[in-house]
Amino acid sequence: MRALCWYGRKDVRVETVPDPTIINPRDAVIKVTSTAICGSDLHLYDGYIPTMEKGDILGHEFMGEVVEVGKENNKLKVGDRVVVPFTIACGHCFFCERQMFSLCDNSNPNAKMAETLYGSSPSGLFGYSHLLGGYAGGQAEYVRVPYADVGPIKIPERLTDEQVLFLTDNFPTGYQAAENCNIQPGDTVAIWGCGSVGQFAIKSAYLLGAERVIAIDDIPERLLMASREGKAETIDFSKVHVLETLKEMTGGRGPDACIDCVGLEAHGHSVDAIYDRVKAATRILETDRPHALREAIQACRKGGTVSIPGVYGGLLDKMNFGAAFAKGLTFRMGQTHDTKYLAPLLQRIEEGQIDPTFVITHRMSLEEAPGAYEKFGKREDGYIKVVLKP
Ligand SMILES: [Zn+2]
Ligand SMILES: [Zn+2]
After folding, report:
1. Residue 40 C-alpha to ligand 1 middle, in angstroms?
2. Hey, is 388 helix, strand or coil?
3. Ligand with an atom nearest the CA of residue 59
4. pTM, whole model, 2 decimals?
5. Is there a contact between 216 and 242 (Cβ–Cβ < 8 Å)?
6. Which positions ≥6 away from 38 have C-beta within 8 Å?
7. CA distance 373 to 390
8. Is 194 strand, coil or helix?
9. Tens digit of pLDDT for each residue in 53-83?
């Protein structure tokens, strides 16, 4: 089959590789009909995530048709059309039973590696390093789905691939980020990063009852999408001082909740952002550049919530934890418990409460993916969300 393989920093190639097969009896093999490139794939592309190996197949956002089912999988049958959540979960461990699917205890075969770094291991993910399981991803013609009787959800024929594809990650991720803000009537939510997750966080904040959403970025087309599609007020951080502007917009108090949809590669213009760039370039201690997070902490009103869907992988330097303590902030973060949100969010799509296709800016074939990574990585040509057809 053809698949997009990682070879190193800024080096991905579409190659012919062996077809996946059923390994465990609960597996399924999916013929991918649509897949997408995620902002977090760029962290891999830029070489920020350790334990990648040459030839690893990328992609954690994919859907398709079941072509093979393991003999203990009673949920799926050949021909089913499914969306697959990006977090891999066994369905039966302590964490899965509590619907904390991204913390599954059984789905990361390299848990020892993660335990060394983090104390204990989160779930495995598709196409996201050996630290998180070394699973082949879905930017490919076919993919093996482990525990396929837990994650995948069947999709009604009347919905198109593009309407449901972002259930794999970005929609639930934006939704969980908003849900983690415990939004109350009248609340103002500020969102850093207007990539795809940020766009869904904006929509979700309104779906969950926010009165105002303020979106922060420096890329004009992303800000435009946030205001046109998301109905958010916007701040261009290349033009104004974010903290002062947020204060002014909220009567001096600050937003009730702040969502960091940027994660570890924040590009800011202030002194601490420049410091981070120098520091990250030398790769001595710090792996993550947390500029957006610092600003979110600094901006948030007293007693407010900072919600972090953006991916962090390692150590954070110069973190304003004193501000968080002084203001009594609540922090919510982590990978999305995707599986938990599939059915309710599919229902919202079916009821027409949201049409996730608004976020798509580019459509192309899998063969063209390396060029898309390059342009998306440089934030060129208006890239926000790319859908690939194998
Ligand atoms: Zn993703
Ligand atoms: Zn589990």
Report:
1. 6
2. strand
3. 1
4. 0.94
5. yes
6. 60, 61, 169, 170, 196
7. 16
8. coil
9. 999 999 999 999 999 999 999 999 999 999 9
